[in-house]
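To whoever is on call:

I kicked off a structure prediction for a single chain this morning and the downstream step that reads the tokens threw a length-mismatch warning. I double-checked the sequence; it's 144 residues and nothing unusual in it as far as I can see. Pasting both halves so you can look.
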Amino acid sequence: MDENRSITGDGPSMAAQDPSAGLDQIRGFLKSKDDTSRFVGLALLKSVLDTQAQLREDVVQVNSLWESISPKFLDRLLRATKNDHVTADEAKNMIDIAVGVLHTFAIILPEESREDKRFIGRIDPLVNCLVQRLVQRPLLYTRD
């Protein structure tokens, strides 16, 4: 996607006009009650954090963005499994984005935020998710 286009592709992005407007748009997606919007917000957030080093160093913005993410939504993404409504690929994508966001914030959040229940509380769901992946995935290497 052209970084100067809006998310919908129909004009200049708010981020191209004002970077803080783009972050506000991401916060809006993250705070939405709609899971699809929240997922879009996480994907955009991950992309922005991966590409904008100056943002990763802005403690106020990082904390604000982290506070915009619903911990319960992250936990649900980490528990995603194939079912009647979700394909195996969709479940994998849900888990991947949740793990990626947690990984990024584990690196960039200030220490006091990493020690907060909002972050620490994601450890059990993350470990459970990773254990399930190991159980479901055949061993790639075997000992002789």
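Update from on-call: the warning came from a stale cache, not from the record. Cleared it. Sanity check on the structure: Residues 34-136 form one domain.
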